[in-house]
Write a structure and sequence with these properties.
Elements lengths: L1 H17 L8 H24 L18 H15 L5 H12 L6 E7 L8 H9 L4 H5 L1 E7 L25 E3 L1 H4 L4 H12 L3 H18 L4 E5 L3 E3 L3 H17 L4 E5 L14 H26 L4 H4 L20 H22 L1 H4 L5 E4 L9 E5 H21 L15 H12 L2 E6 L3 E3 L38
Parallel strand pairs: 1-2, 1-4, 2-3, 6-9
Antiparallel strand pairs: 4-8, 5-10, 6-8, 7-9
Length: about 475
């Protein structure tokens, strides 16, 4: 019986709409709709004012790239660089001697560094890693710096005209291709060939492989591979090691993971075009659910038992008239369901995913849309498997390489981080990200961006040109 009543209400609503025979609204209904419109406009203004941290928002502007915490860390790193004088070298040597005594480090850091056409940030990157570490923390780290040039004199650390502070003295090991490629003349020649042809994506496979090999030999349980244009959070080491311990707990329960991402950009964590059927489905479900609830309430209010079911009989008298003076008249339900609710759904999507569904601080699963390769932490056991996979492709590349053609590069196709995603997908490995990021990208160039953002016209931190972690800028000094 109730289903028949509900169906009749829907039919009546449809007939009134088609005939445009919509009676005027009551004062209560008009007041409600006016308040809704005013509240909607107020929310629009609030979002335009506050939502600057979400690149997936329709209200996002270039001001969202404003560096905040990055500026503080840049100043601290620069001050640390200035303090690297002769008087500080004794402390640096003591930290190196601790690692030289054969003590197994907890973390091995590998960083390839090369001369860049624009800003050079490798000295800032290295300084931000060590400026707030305690002597005990520094002693737990082995830092391997790879000068990623077949001719090391091209790097600013060794170029006599370069203005970059030589922060390589903070490294435990400064590595060069001839030293770590062993007796493989074919590998050093191949690296030189990739340099000459500016095949930097392909060359990054060799850099990753060589650094992973070096860190694996250190026996450190964790390996961090960094790019030379990042800025570390104060307290990054403690935060990273605590997160790794949590992930190890997951591993004991059978949750195998490839890496912990210490940098990602929210730019690729927005609404995705390929998911539009899901968004449309849930939008339709929401509209249908609201319509169903309102029609159900109207049906209950119009029944003879309404006063016995509702707590305030005077507000809901028995057998209310179904004319327009009823607050849940059919025209009002129609306007609210097919105008107000869709407007709220549009506002929900326009606000952006990081506004309506923000990441909570901590470790998050990020098997898709993670970018980029600025900072990855691997377990040593997983690094060994990844090395075997890289070794196979590099061996095939060396075998197929020919100075007269490019066919050899088919074995090292795409960026190295994309290749690792293939490795993980083939083995059903999880990938995690630390939120907010422990590192910020401050480099001027990246292969993930074809064009530069207008942010460079406003801010002096180069990473604000696209590959940027907005949550990093909300961080503060470590407690």
């Amino acid at each position: 019986m109730q289903i028949a009543r509900l169906f009749n209400h829907v039919v009546t609503l449809f007939q009134q709409t088609v005939r445009l025979n919509l009676p005027s609204f009551t004062k209560a209904q008009s007041r409600f709709l006016l308040i809704f419109v005013l509240a909607y406009l107020a929310i629009l203004l609030l979002l335009r004012w506050r939502v600057s941290h979400d690149p997936g928002s329709a209200f996002f502007t270039v001001q969202g790239y404003a560096p905040k915490y990055s500026l503080t860390r840049l100043q601290q790193a620069q001050a640390f660089l200035q303090s690297i004088a002769q008087s500080d070298m004794e402390n640096i040597k003591k930290a190196k001697q601790t690692n030289a005594l054969g003590i197994v480090p907890r973390l091995c850091i590998g960083m390839p560094t090369a001369r860049r056409s624009q800003e050079q940030y490798v000295d800032i990157t290295i300084a931000s890693l060590f400026d707030h570490l305690t002597p005990q923390e520094r002693a737990q780290i082995q830092f391997n710096l790879l000068i990623a040039h077949s001719n090391p004199d091209e790097h600013p650390f060794y170029h006599e005209l370069a203005s970059t502070v030589n922060a390589s003295r903070l490294a435990d090991n400064v590595l060069f291709y001839p030293d770590i490629a062993g007796s493989s003349e074919s590998m050093t020649n191949r690296i030189r060939q990739l340099e000459e042809k500016k095949k930097f994506n392909e060359k990054s496979y060799y850099d990753y492989n060589l650094l992973l090999h070096q860190c694996v030999t250190s026996l450190a349980p964790y390996i961090l591979i960094l790019e030379d244009d990042v800025l570390a959070q104060e307290g990054w080491y403690t935060r990273t090691m605590e997160s790794l311990q949590k992930l190890d707990t997951k591993s004991r329960w059978g949750d195998e993971w490839l890496y912990l991402r210490l940098f990602f950009t929210e730019k690729f964590q927005g609404w995705h075009q390929e998911h539009w059927p899901v968004y449309l489905l849930w939008s339709c479900v929401t509209v249908t659910l609201v319509a169903g609830i309102l029609l159900f309430l109207r049906l209950r209010l119009s029944s003879s038992s309404a006063s016995s079911l509702l707590p305030y009989p005077r507000l809901f008298p028995q057998n209310p008239s179904l004319t327009n003076h009823h607050i849940l008249s059919l025209p009002f339900i129609f306007i609210f369901t097919f105008a107000c609710v869709p407007a709220l759904i549009i506002l929900y999507f326009a606000a952006g995913p990081q506004t309506v569904q923000p990441f909570r601080p901590g470790i998050h699963l990020m098997n898709n849309y993670g970018c980029c390769s600025q900072a990855f932490v691997f377990r040593r056991q997983m690094s060994l498997k990844l090395l075997d996979w890289f070794d196979e492709r590099i061996a095939a590349d060396l075998k197929a390489a020919n100075p007269n053609n490019d066919h050899g590069w088919i074995h090292l196709r795409g960026p190295v981080d994309s290749a690792m995603e293939i490795f993980a997908n083939e083995r059903n490995l999880q990938r995690y990200a630390l939120v907010p990021s422990a590192f910020q990208h401050i480099g001027a160039q990246t292969y993930k961006e074809d064009t530069e953002s207008n942010a460079q016209e406003f801010f002096n931190v180069s990473g604000a040109r696209g590959i940027w972690n907005f949550g990093f800028e909300q961080l503060g000094p470590a407690s």
